[in-house]
Amino acid sequence: MSRVSPFALSVAARRRFSRLALAVALALTGGVAIAQDDVPAPQDTPYAGTIALHVDASDKVQGIFRVRESIPVKAGALTLLYPQWIPGDHSPTGPINMLAGLMLSANGKPLAWKRDKYNVYAFHVDVPAGVTTLEAEFQYLSGRNESEGFEITDTMMDMEWSKVTLYPAGYYSRGITYAPSVTLPKGWLLGTALETAVQSGDTITFKPVPLNTLIDSPIYAGQYFKRVDLNPGGDAPVHMDVFADAPKYLEMTPEQVSVHRNLVTQATKLFGSHHYDHYDFLFSLSDQLGGNGTEHHQSSEDGLGTDYFTAWSDAAPDRDLLAHEYVHSWNGKFRRPADLWTPNFNVPMGDSLLWVYEGQTQYWGFVLTARAGMWTPQQFRDALAMVAANYDRNREGFAWRTLEDTTNDPTVARRSSLPYRSWQMSEEYYSAGQMMWLEVDGKLRELTKDRKSLDDFARAFFGVDNGSYVTKTYTFDDVVAALNGVAPYDWAGFLRSRVDTLNPPLQNGLAATGWKLVYTDQESAYEKQYNSRSQPSRHLYNFAWSIGVTMNDKGQVNDVRWNGPAFKAGVTTGATLVAVNGQTYSTDTLKSAIIAAKTSKAPIQLLLQYQGGFRTVAVDYHEGLQYPHLVRINGTPDYLSEIIGARK
Questions:
Q1: How far is CA 80 from CA 62, 68, 128, in A?
Q2: CA separation, residue 198 to residues 190, 208, 222 (Å)
Q3: One-character DSSP codes across 535-569
C-alpha cells in the first residue's frame, strides 16, 4: 500500500492530514502528543548547485578545525544538518557537542539561525529574497586528551568530513555535490581516496563529489609519511599510506611489504572482484593517534602502535586490523544490510544484520591475515582459541540476550565502559558472529564433501557486479538464498537458532572444522604478546579463564566474570588489587597464588582498594592457571587448516 506524502497535498488537505495524524498519535499514546522535529524528509532529487567546503586544519597545537561553506540557496526556509548517524559507527555518534561558533551570513550580512526544538543536529534559517549564496562558518573542536581521543597531533591528523560538514536537509546525500578543500600544517603530506584537482602550497582542492562519497573519504595527513604500492601491475591501484610519530617507525622489511601485498592478492582471489577504482589503507603508527579502525568504500582508517613494523616478531595481536577493514569494502560498503542503508546521515540506521556485516568480516579478517602470511597458522589458531574461550567461560550474558540483540549495542552503549561486560555483553555480533560463520564454513564443507565452502558464498554474495561502486543491499532472506545456492539446507533455521535464541552453540564451529578447545597452565606465545603489548588498546592482564578477572597495568580490575570465582567472592570492577595472600600485588604474585591454590584448600586472599577503603576477599578457586589452546580432534577432517591455506 502506497503512502501519500503530505507534501503533495493542498494546504487545506495538509491541515486535515495533520489533524488526522495528530489524532492517531494521541490515540496510540494515551492522549500524549509525540514531539516531532521540523526537518524536511530527504527526497531523491538533486540539490541545485555545488557547495564549496573548505577546512583549515593547520592548527596542530590547539586542534581547532576552522570550516567555511558556500552554499547555493534560494529564498525561503532552509534547514542545515550536522551528520548524526555515522556509517561504520552504526550509531548516532556525530559529535555535535564539538561544533562551535556557527555563523551564517549572506551578502556580507549576518543571518539569525535557530536550532530545532527537538533535533539538536538541525539548524533552521530563513534565507532573504535575492540571496543566492549562504556562507556558513564554524569550528570543529577536536579532542585534547586521551579520554576524548586525539584527531590531530604535532605529527599527524585523522580528519573525517562528517565532523566538519553541514548539509541541506530534504535531499538524499548522493544528490548533494561538494567541492572540498583543506589546508594542512606546513609541509605535511596526505592520503585520501579523494582525487586532487589542484594544490597550492599547503592547500589542496579536490575534485567535486557527492556528499555520500565525501563523508566516506577521510583524510590522513602528517609530517612523516611513506606510501607503499600493494598491488603493483594490478588493474586497480591499492596503496598503504603510512603516517608515523617518527621516521624510524616507517622502516619496513621486504618480507613485511610482501605479506601486505599478499593481503590484497588473497582478498581479490576470495571475492573474485573489487568495488573500487583505487584503494588506500590510511594507516597511523602512533602512541597518540592509534587504536582506530573504520571502514570506507575506497579507503580505511587504520591505527596501531608506533612499532607495528619495528617490533614485528613480538606484535602479532591486532595484525588482523587491515584485513578486517579491507573486507568491508565488499561486505558493508558495497553489499550492505537493507536497514543500514539510509538516504542521508540523519535518518536512523537499523543494525539487525550486523552479525553478517561485522561477524563475517571478523571471520574473513582472521582468515585473510593467515592466508596472506601476516599470521602463522599457529598464531591464527591461538587467536581463535582466545575468541572461543570467551564464549566458553565468558558467555553468561547469552542466558538473557540473543546474539542479534547485541546488534543494538552501538546505540545502547556506544562503546562506553561497562561494569560487568560478561553479563551485559557488548557488540558480540563481531566475535560470536565469527564463531557462527566458522560453523557455517564447516557445514558447507560437510554437505558438499569438501567441494564447496564459505569462499563460494563470499564470491557469489559479495563478489557480484565486479567494478560497481553502487551499494547493493541485502536482507536475511538474501543471505539464506545465497547459502542455499552453495549447498541446499535449512539455512534459515540454522541461522535463527544461532542469532535469535539464548545460549547459542558457538563452540560447534571448532568441532565442525576438526578442532576443539582445551585449557593448560601455559599461555600461548600469541596470548603473551596480547597481554604484554603496551598499545592504546592493550594494558590487559588476563585471568578471565581462571579466577575470572582482567586488570589493567595498574592492577585495577576492569572486568569480573559474572558468577565466576572472583565475582562470587565479592570482587567488583573498578577495585585495585593491592596484595595477594599478604604479598604486594604483581602479576607474578597472583599467578603464584593461583598455582599454589591448586594443591591447597585455602582460598586466595585478595586485598582490594575501592572508593577510599580497603577490604579483603577470599576467592575459593583451586583449578590453577587456565589458558586456551586448540587441539585436533583425531579422525576428523582438518578443515581449519584448509580454510587458512593461501589460495593459488
A1: 27, 14, 16
A2: 14, 12, 19
A3: STT---EEETTTTSEEE-TTSBEEEE-TTSHHHHH
Write out pLDDT tens, residues 168-225. Answer: 999 999 999 999 999 999 999 999 999 999 999 999 999 999 999 999 999 999 999 9
- 172-186 pLDDT, tens digit each: 999 999 999 999 999
Count the helices and strands in the chain (H runs, E runs). 18, 32
Asked whether 53 and 165 are in contact (CB, 8 A), the reply is yes
Query: Phi, psi (5° rounding) for residue 350?
Result: -110, 140
CB 394 within 8 Å of CB 538: no
The pLDDT score that the predictor gives to residue 34 is: 60
Distance of alpha carbon 402 from alpha carbon 501, whole angstroms? 6
CA 389 from centre of chain: 22
The grid coordinates listed for 512 are 565442525
Nearest to 423 by CA among 335, 548, 278, 247: 548
Neighbours of 151 (CB within 10 A): 23
CB hemisphere CA count around 335 (13 angstroms)? 28
Of 480, 335, 352, nearest to 411 by C-alpha is 352
Beta bridge partners of 113: 125
For CA atoms 4, 28, 25, 117, the dihedral sign is: negative
Mean pLDDT by 10 residues, the chain (648 residues): 34 35 42 73 97 98 97 98 95 96 97 97 97 98 85 96 98 98 98 97 98 98 98 96 97 98 98 96 92 93 95 94 98 96 96 97 98 98 96 89 95 88 93 98 98 98 93 97 98 98 95 98 94 57 91 89 96 95 94 96 96 96 97 97 97
Report the candidate in 165, 520, 479 with the shortest Cα–Cα distance to residue 344. Answer: 165
Residues belonging to the chain: 648
User: Residues 355-385: pLDDT tens digits?
Assistant: 999 999 999 999 999 999 999 999 999 999 9
What cell does 527 get?
596470548
Tens digit of each residue's pLDDT (9 = 90 or more) over 398-449: 999 999 999 999 999 888 888 999 899 999 999 999 999 999 999 999 999 9
pTM over 0.90: yes
In whole angstroms, give the CA distance from residue 158 to residue 60.
11
- Per-residue burial over 189-215, b if 16 or more Cβ lie within 10 Å, else e, is ebbbbbeeeeeeebebbbebbbbbbbb
Helices (H), 238-358: 254-271, 321-327, 354-357
In the chain, the domains with their CATH numbers are 1-34 (no CATH), 41-202 (2.60.40.3650), 335-501 (1.10.390.10), 525-627 (2.30.42.10)
CA-CA distance, 47 to 20, in Å (whole number)?
32
CB 68 within 8 A of CB 328: no
> 165: which 3 cell numbers?
560538514
Torsion of CA 430, 435, 440, 443, to 10 degrees: 180
SS (HEC) of 422-490? HHHCCCCCCHHHHHHHHHHHHHHHHHCCCCCCHHHHHHHHHCCCCCCCCCEEECHHHHHHHHHHHCCCC
Say if CB 99 and CB 138 are below 8 A apart. Answer: yes
